[in-house]
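Reply to dn_fold:

You asked what the input looked like. This is it:
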Amino acid sequence: MTRIIMRSLGTAVFPLALAGAAAAQEPPFPVFTSSVDTSTFYIATDNEGSDDTQNLFVAIDPNFTLEWWDNVFLVGGLNITDYPPAGEDSFLEYEDLTISDISLFASPDWTWSAQFGKTSVPFGLAPSNAPGLFGSNFVGDYTFDGIMVLGGYDVGRFIGDGAYGSHNFLGGSYFVDTTFMSASLFGEVPRTRLDDGGPANTENFDSFYLTYDAQWVPILPGGVNCRASYIYNAAGIGDTGHEEGWSLGTVVPLPLAGRDALSSASGEYLAVTAIAEYAHFNNFGGVGGVDHDYYTAGVQTFYGQWYGTATTTTRRIDDPVGGDQTDRLYALSAGYTFNNAMSVQLGYAYEDIPAASAHIVGLSFNYAFQLTDHQSWWPDFGSPAYVETNEQLLHNWQTQK
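and this is what came back:
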């Protein structure tokens, strides 16, 4: 359950997770942590009005964290996945590798923080938290990443001595990556160029974002996590307007019975996680006068090692030239977690889009390899490390001075 709950906290939880890891030991530096998440997918799509497609592919995400000095981290991530041409079948044919993250993060006291490099913009909760195999199909429209600088300040520990959770204010500037890192290794994704245009594709820090994250707010037994975001994307070459958007979302985990691994394995664990988010954009995609609205609601239920999800998103497009349009997504999934690292999931989605609706069925098998476990390179590389629970991480954060 830790994996799912931590996922809901988004980008801003990263400093706390690393803080807990550092607090659990006093290693000689540098400290290296790495993992590899792997997934195998089979997706079959019944397209109304066009040819049906089938897609079998693997997704592999190696990630590492190198703490070179105390509270100074180099973070990196790669992504291997499939990039099939639109409308074509693909069976492990278009796999390619990209650099998803390479950034430097520092926080001297876990109140102030700074980050620089290629990484994801902390905008919205739904793109990374809408549950299920297809829950993020529409909200994936508003994922942003690039070369950025980010600063944050967490006032949570000064509110009731940390008793009311984390309250992190983040702000930064970025532009779309046009370096060699924007292309995939074997050419399935070409390098992004300035001439391609598009929001924030300016090679200047003239796009910016502001985010407020509230985490572990003790309104309900499992805490409440909220995010409010604003983003301004400067117009690129050929754009007819600058893109501007804001979002407001929440993720609420509700443990109902049992809280440990033993109760989960015995089928006594029962919990629900709910998500809701609204996002609005002016001049979406850099097209002047075109506005997008997204309304997302989802729920994930856990019973022992079984889980089920339901998600719906309504996407409303206001286009004074092409005409208004309303798209709707309905997605269901069910899965089983064999242990903390392995799970299988079956999903179905219906995308109700004028002239392009589709029924989608998918199956995924997921396994996470923990290559290292917060271990130092020297002199005791390979020795067991003490890893804290979520509750211990929160307690340490609240009591650190």
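The helical segments are 2-7, 14-23, 126-129, 261-265, 390-399.
Hope that clears it up.
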